[in-house]
Amino acid sequence: MRVRKLAKEIEAHRFIAAEVRGETTQVLPPEWFLTAFNDGTIEYGTKRDGSGFLTIHDKVNNHGDLIANDGDWIMRGVNGELYPCTNDVFEQTYERIE
Asked: Closest Cα partner for 95 from 3, 1, 2, 12?
């Protein structure tokens, strides 16, 4: 059986570690991202090599902790769930409308 995803508009924000560290402000994060960061749903961390990552604590689907690496997209789904998406998958799967 072949299937196609239903077309739904969701929100996305690209995670750039330098922006979280305050080293650059190319794109201001959306309110939902800041809220999740401030309430602990999203936490910033640093790997041993110095690169940044985000831990997303899935509070909607109980999938546990999800990791987003520098350059990944943070997606906000139709039910408010947050999840990471690598840039290559994002570019193949999503179309920018704004």
From this structure: 12
